[in-house]
Amino acid sequence: MRDASVGEILVQPDDLARRVRELGSQITADYEGRDLLLVGVLKGAVFFLSDLMRHIAVPCELDFMAVASYGSATDSSGVVRILKDLDVALEGRHVLIVEDIVDSGLTLQYLLRNLGARNPASMEVCALLTKPARLKVDLEPRYVGFEIPNRFVVGYGLDYAERFRNLPYVAVLETQAEVPIQAPTRGAQS
Ligand code: IMP
Ligand code: MG
After folding, report:
1. What are the pocket residues of ligand 1 if the criterion is a CB atom closer than 6 Å to any ligand atom?
2. What is the CATH number of domain 13-150?
3. Where in the chain are the domains?
4. Is 64 helix (H, G, I), strand (E, B) or coil?
5. Which whole number is the average pLDDT over 142-161?
6. Which one of 158, 160, 172 would you pick to mutate in the ligand 1 pocket, going by the greatest count of ligand atoms within 8 A of its CB?
7. Is 87 a catalytic residue?
8. Cα 2 from chain centre
């Protein structure tokens, strides 16, 4: 049974699977002859990342970061705090940051600055979703799954107040007010 707050489906499971396969092939071709370090941004990117990695055929390692950005449940402020840092050093590595969604781009801008200062050999971004209408900073992920309109979406890893990550599709969140949440006091985790 579908939750009443889950609205229109923007990306169906079949389309997610097809696009993730395509991105995996593209990344495999682009990184031929190089070793890759995939950096997943917890928690939202976990579903996308684990599917994507199975379609990447170059040698690759995996690490995770967790960040919290101060702001409301649906808007990030760009003030980012690292909750969990990487286990490995980036010096000389080919790094691909994997994100669930680039909204304002403020979280990603912070990550690019922070990780870029650790001297990786290269650093690119793969985002499942982008909302071009909301972008506040000048950055363009090298790999993008789908561009979506300016709506708050849930599913396939994306949450609202930690709910709906388990949906197998990406759908619009219809009635935010009806989802009981506690106001985030120390920032919302991605
Ligand atoms: P940004 O800093 O504004 O780009 O927001 C980045 C983070 O906010 C993402 O990694 C998500 O965790 C969260 N976010 C932004 N838009 C959405 C959305 O539509 N649904 C769920 N989470 C979102
Ligand atoms: Mg996130």
Report:
1. 44, 69, 76, 99-108, 152-154, 158, 190
2. 3.40.50.2020
3. 13-150
4. strand
5. 97
6. 158
7. no
8. 24
How many residues belong to the chain? 190
Active site residue: 87, 103, 138, 159, which one?
Answer: 103
45-90 pLDDT, tens digit per residue, is 999 999 999 999 999 999 999 998 877 767 777 788 999 999 999 9
The residue written with tokens 């909750």 in the block is 83
Closest to 85 measured CA to CA, from 107, 97, 68, 67: 67
- pLDDT digits over 81-124, tens only? 999 999 999 999 999 999 999 999 999 999 999 999 999 999 99
What is the DSSP code (8-state) at residue 183?
P
* Angle at CA of residue 12, ends 132 and 151, nearest 5°: 35
